[in-house]
Design goal:
By secondary structure, this protein is mainly alpha-helical. It contains four helices and no strands. It starts with a helix and ends in a 19-residue tail after the last helix.
């Protein structure tokens, strides 16, 4: 009988040791899960702040876009009014019609003529190699050409 009691006591101690070991493992898993949960909560809070900031920026961008569209509309309206005024003035004034119909001087035509550039170096080379405007009161260098 004594052996049976020792065997039962050993079995009980073994079961108690196993359950303590499993309890320790469960506590460690719980701590890991709590750490992971805290990290996820922090990540979620960070993402919510980012989303709120992006939403605010989107609203600000929309407001800026609306202001720009309004300014563009106003600028277009002013340009149309200016064009209409120029057309009225040109229609009413014979000397203005004659002036606007006249050809531009060769030097001005040459200022508006420029080749297509592939890079900034080509543009700088073109700037330094192009012809200078003639001095005031002097005939243009290509007086015989139309320049156009």
């Amino acid at each position: 009988m004594m052996r049976l009691c020792v065997a039962l006591l050993t079995l009980l101690l073994l079961a108690l040791g196993v359950s303590c070991w499993r309890g320790a493992q469960a506590r460690e898993q719980l701590r890991e899960a709590q750490r992971a949960n805290a990290a996820l909560i922090a990540d979620l809070a960070s993402r919510e702040r980012i989303i709120a900031r992006l939403n605010q920026q989107a609203q600000e961008n929309s407001a800026r876009e609306a202001r720009l569209r309004q300014q563009q509309s106003e600028a277009s309206r002013l340009a149309l009014n200016r064009e209409a005024q120029i057309a009225r003035e040109t229609h009413d004034s014979q000397s203005l019609r004659a002036w606007s119909a006249a050809a531009l001087p060769d030097d001005l035509i040459r200022l508006h003529r420029r080749p297509a550039f592939d890079n900034a170096r080509d543009y700088l080379d073109w700037l330094s190699a192009r012809e200078q405007l003639s001095a005031a009161g002097q005939p243009p260098a290509n007086a015989g050409g139309s320049g156009g």
